[in-house]
Amino acid sequence: MIQFLDKIHHKDSKNFFLIAGPCAIESEDMAFEIAEKIVRLSDKYQIPYIFKGSFKKANRSRVDSFTGIGDEKALEILKKVGENFNIPTTTDIHENEHAALAAKYVDVLQIPAFLVRQTDLLVAAANTGKCVTLKKGQFLSPESMKFAVEKVRDSGNEKTAIIERGNSFGYTDLVVDFRGIPTMQNYAPVILDVTHSLQQPNQNSGVTGGRPELIETIAKAGIAVGANGIFIETHPDPSCAKSDGANMLKLDLLENLLGKLTKIREAIL
User: Fold this and answer.
1) I need a surface site. Which of 53, 75, 79, 108 has the fewest CB within 10 A?
2) Which Gene3D superfamilies would you find in this protein's record (predicted)?
């Protein structure tokens, strides 16, 4: 997928690529702080990098949960990040009309896991001509993602990738089946969403939990089995994040992790 992104750097490094940023766009200052830090690290370790931030959080446990700072305000921030740092950006979409709207501001459209079977949404994303990433539903087998990829490609768009984000394990936990990564690579490049794979959804409090202490473990395993990319949500202070703070990586821990992952990548090539 990254070969279709003009603004991505270090395409020829043979390293994994990285999608990283906050769960949601909370402010311009926060987005720029995170992007600046990760761009510096991506240059240091020769990692192709895409900045991620949700312009709107539609899948919330409670009606009073944070959903965003305003659609176009958040999208404008994503556009500024891309222009200021000369990097591609991505955001998730939840409704058909979001595809054309978000495509004006970002380079990659992400389909959420719960919506990856929604044919009209996939076709709308594909028709923008943007790259499209497809999060594997927690309820789907790796083999079934073939059909999601085909929906995008049958719509005339070859620029797609799959994001693995764990499988439902009981009511309140997720597990990653690493056997699914090579299986899905038969259909498209595969990105391991490390932080969402460590969510603990459906908590009695209505606030999703997580296991961030296992981020390094999951990330190392993903690189070791040959994932094309890694997806990590990060924040300067996850305890204050307005969304998914329980499973995000603290920003100042990212450099140590990327250094280790780069060494694993070098070892398996």
Assistant:
1) 79
2) Aldolase class I (3.20.20.70)
